[in-house]
Every structure is written in C-alpha cells, then in structure tokens.
Fold this sequence. Notes:
Layout: H1 4-12, H2 32-50
Amino acid sequence: MDGGLALRAYEAAVHPKRLVTxxxxxxxxxxxxxxxxxxxxxxxxxxxxxIDRPAG
Length: 56
C-alpha cells in the first residue's frame, strides 16, 4: 500500500489539519524514533486546537 488513499482523505479533510510523515514501515510510528515524531506531532496539534485558551 502506498498511502494514496490516506493522502486523498487528508486532502478532502477540512482545516485545521496538519500532515506529518514518519519514515519507515507501518508500525515504526508506534516505537522508537518514529514514535517521538508521531506522538510529538499529535500532542502539539491537540494542545494547539483542543486546550481551552482565555479569550482576548
């Protein structure tokens, strides 16, 4: 699988969105250096978009 379906889904999604790629095989995003990339990106997105911020 080349990721084409996932990329088309990403293109169709509305904002806010951010694409982060992790080099390696499918499970490399869940361990070691790949996990550092994927979890850091996920955390950053959640903090930016889901944590309540004071108005103003």
